[in-house]
Amino acid sequence: MKILYAIQGTGNGHVSRARDVVPALRNHGQVDIAISGIQVDVDLGLETRYRMKGMGFMFGKKGGVDLLQTFRKCVSRRFLEEMRQFPVEKYDLVINDFEPVTAWAARLKGISCISLSHQYAVLHPEAPRPQKTDWIGKMIMTHYAPVSHGFGYHFKPYHHSFFTPVIRKEIRAIEPDTKNHITVYLPAYDDKRIIKVLSEISSEHWHVFSKHCASPEQVGNISIFPIENQAFLTSLAASKGVLCGAGFETPAEAMFLGKKLLVIPMKNQYEQQCNAAALENMGIHSLKSLKTKRIPEIRNWLENAQVLHVPFPDETAVNIEKVINWYQTIEKPEPTKTFWGY
Question: What is this structure's pTM?
Answer without folding.
Answer: 0.88
